[in-house]
Amino acid sequence: MDNLLVVRNLKVTDLRNQEEVIHGVSFELKKNSCLGIVGESGSGKSMTAKAILGLTNPWMHTEGAAKFSSEQGTLDLLQQEANTLRSIRGQRICMILQDAMSAFDPLAKIGSQMAETFIENKGLSRSEAMTMALIALKMVNMPDPEQVLKKYPHQLSGGMLQRCMVAIALAMKPDIIVADEPTTALDSINQRLVVEEFKLLRQQTGAALIFISHDLGVVQYLSDQLLVMRCGERVEYGEAKSIFQNPQHEYTKYLIDSRRELAQSFQKSMKRRAVSA
Ligand SMILES: Nc1ncnc2c1ncn2[C@@H]1O[C@H](COP(=O)(O)OP(=O)(O)OP(=O)(O)O)[C@@H](O)[C@H]1O
């Protein structure tokens, strides 16, 4: 079982105006690997991920196949009942979103929210779940984790909240983590920290990662395979290294050229960080 997820001919249509926004996209996610999905705003990156996970609005219709293989066998995510899909999303596939603030309830403390996730999806008692939350925060090197557990979301920075989400994923040990623009809302220091946490996440959990971003520098740093999207279509797909070295499609060349300088400065700063660490 080499592929964890095989997506075939994924189409998403807005039923309100019959407009197709994703036009038959196919790709695979291999075990222990990172698939980067890149493309400009509106190219369909988020919609592709949401469609696979059953998180589109009710007026969006999804077709195609998204075969997810786990120890329990292979099932098509697009054919599952809402309840089954919800439990797969809680346990086997974790999502990390761009806006971490919106992922947390503003009225509950971080510790109890993290614990709630572990109680629901791992069947732990409250005290076991709180212990797990603390361990998870320590694993992402969160400063002062005991205090962080007692904070409300608005008392933490975007970067810290993002790292709380990574910590939850780390503790859940899912098969797949889908991260949708997880660094976009962050400043460059927090961006680097979060990217490093993603590396850690992969190393420690062995989870496969779908990393959606318009930042080619970050994607190049993390990805093994690359899916380039434009206007809801797949324009290029394959090994990230060879695409970055020798892009075939004009659009990929354009993306790489227009981001080359930024990508290089990002790579340099990651190397500097690695040297000084
Ligand atoms: N809730 C929605 N209902 C209908 N159409 C939508 C909805 N959300 C997005 N779309 C459309 O789907 C297409 C793809 O959008 P999507 O958000 O997936 O792009 P993206 O590549 O993720 O962009 P960004 O980087 O800005 O998030 C766009 O044409 C967009 O207008």
Topology:
Blueprint: E1 3-14, E2 19-30, E3 34-38, H1 45-52, E4 60-70, E5 73-76, H2 82-91, E6 93-96, H3 100-103, H4 110-122, H5 126-139, H6 145-149, H7 158-172, E7 176-180, H8 188-205, E8 208-212, H9 216-222, E9 225-230, E10 233-239, H10 240-245, H11 250-276
Parallel strand pairs: 3-8, 3-9, 6-7, 7-8
Antiparallel strand pairs: 1-2, 1-4, 4-5, 9-10
Helix pairs in contact: 4-5, 4-7, 5-7, 7-8, 9-11
InterPro entries: AAA+_ATPase (IPR003593), ABC_Ni/Peptide_Import (IPR050388), ABC_transporter-like_ATP-bd (IPR003439), P-loop_NTPase (IPR027417)
Domain ABC transporter: 7-256
Membrane topology: Peripheral membrane protein
Structural summary, described in words:
The protein is an alpha/beta fold. It has 2 domains: about 5-90 and about 175-275, P-loop containing nucleotide triphosphate hydrolases (Rossmann fold); about 100-175, no CATH class. The chain is about 45% helix and about 25% strand. The protein is built from 11 helices and 10 strands. The chain has helices at about 45-50, 80-90, 100-105, 110-120, 125-140, 145-150, 160-170, 190-205, 215-220, 240-245, 250-275; strands at about 5-15, 20-30, 35-40, 60-70, 75, 95, 175-180, 210, 225-230, 235-240. The strands form 2 sheets. Strands 6-7-8-3-9-10 form a 6-stranded mixed sheet, sandwiched between helices. A 4-stranded antiparallel sheet has the order 2-1-4-5, with helices on one face. A hairpin with a 2-residue loop joins strand 4 (about 60-70) and strand 5. The two termini are about 35 Å apart. The relative contact order is 0.16. It binds adenosine-5'-triphosphate. Adenosine-5'-triphosphate (ATP) binds near residues 21, 45 and 214. It is a peripheral membrane protein. Keywords: ATP-binding, Cell inner membrane, Cell membrane, Membrane, Nucleotide-binding, Translocase, Transport. GO terms for molecular function: ATP binding; ATP hydrolysis activity. InterPro entries: AAA+_ATPase, ABC_Ni/Peptide_Import, ABC_transporter-like_ATP-bd, P-loop_NTPase. It comes from Sporomusa ovata.
